[in-house]
Amino acid sequence: MASDSSDSADHGRMEEAAWEKKDLDPLPERPVRVILDTDLASDCDDAGAVAVLHALADRGEADILAMGVSAGNRHSVLVLDAFNTWYGRPDIPIGTVKASGVSAGSRYTEEIAGEYPRCHDHWEDADDAPDVMDIYRKTLASEPDIDDENPGVVMVSIGYMTNFRDLLQSGPCEHSDLPGDELVANKVRLWVCM
Ligand SMILES: [Ca+2]
Q1: Is residue 8 situated within a structural domain?
Q2: Centre of ligand 1 from the C-alpha of residue 192, in Å
């Protein structure tokens, strides 16, 4: 029963957070502060989405805070590195799913990773890249809490739900004492998924 009541309390907290956010304008002021989570591997549409996000950043409509890969593919995060380098933002923090990613084959990731300049050219495969949970928690922890002056972060998922699930279920870490669901409730204004 103890565990049931704890689950129920957690549920209540998330429902309350979701309810509170309904009072907010869903479209925050520009530039929108964005974290992009992608399964850049099997399809090419995510490559287009990354290009669009960089174009929005060029127009001053988006600030790209971090990016993460949800696909279990050895080269996907290297391709993300190559894209960010290509578009002139090689310093965007990026990471990749580590333990439980859905395995995803690709016709293009290994080739692009090997042929195009990358900021992190010492990364030989996904094992060398940071854990996306560390990137997301560090990024969110460094953002101000949502209030009248701080519209919060928009998280965009265009792949598997793995990383967002793991973020919500993550525990306290060196970057924040908050569990993942509370960290998200305090920092994330909107989660967009397709
Ligand atoms: Ca996708």
Answers
A1: no
A2: 13
Per-residue pLDDT reduced to its tens digit, 68-127: 999 999 999 999 999 999 999 999 999 999 977 788 888 889 999 999 999 999 999 999
Q: Could you give the percent of the chain with pLDDT greater than 70?
A: 85
| Residue 37 belongs to domain spanning | 28-193
| 151 belongs to a structural domain | yes
Ion ligand 1: residue ranges with CB closer than 5 A: 39, 46, 158-159
**4 in any annotated domain:** no
**Residue matched to tokens 């993942």:** 180
In whole angstroms, give the CA distance from residue 115 to residue 156: 28
Other C-beta atoms closer than 10 Å to the C-beta of 166 total 20
Q: How far is the CA of 16 from the centre of ligand 1 (A)?
A: 30
Specify the pTM.
0.85
Which domain CATH number covers 143?
3.90.245.10
> Is 7 within a domain?
no
Distance from Cα 49 to the centre of ligand 1, integer Å:
9
Number of domains in the chain: 1
12 pLDDT exceeds 60? Answer: no
CA distances in angstroms from 99 to 36, 70, 77, 187, listed in the order given: 19, 11, 15, 25
